[in-house]
Amino acid sequence: MVDLHTDEASPAVKARFKEGAVRVIVDRDRCEGNAVCLGIAPDIFDLDDEDYAVVKLDPIPADQEQLAEQAIAECPRAALSRGD
């Protein structure tokens, strides 16, 4: 993973992220693998080998925040939360 606060990240990569960016936390005790989040935001979420939701992007790029918020709101088990 590239640290966005160093010179290793390109300006284009840094531009996709902003200070205080949204992070999403998956509560594996609540997740049932319904994949609603994956349907809403396939660039952000995936299912692991045990069919639990996993977050592929951390933090969430600024251009994907609205989809992350929608996935959090629409999770049928309330297994997703913000972790800023």
TrEMBL record:
Database matches in Pfam families: Fer4_15
- Could you confirm whether the keyword Transport appears in this record? yes
Give the matching InterPro entries.
Fe-S_cluster_ET (IPR051269)
Q: Is Repeat among this UniProt entry's keywords?
A: no
Q: What species does this protein belong to?
A: Mycobacterium intracellulare
Q: Which UniProt keywords are listed?
A: 3Fe-4S, Electron transport, Iron, Iron-sulfur, Metal-binding, Transport
Which co-factors does it depend on?
Answer: [3Fe-4S] cluster
Q: Name one GO molecular function term.
A: metal ion binding
Domain of life, source organism: Bacteria
Q: Report the protein name in the record.
A: Ferredoxin FdxD
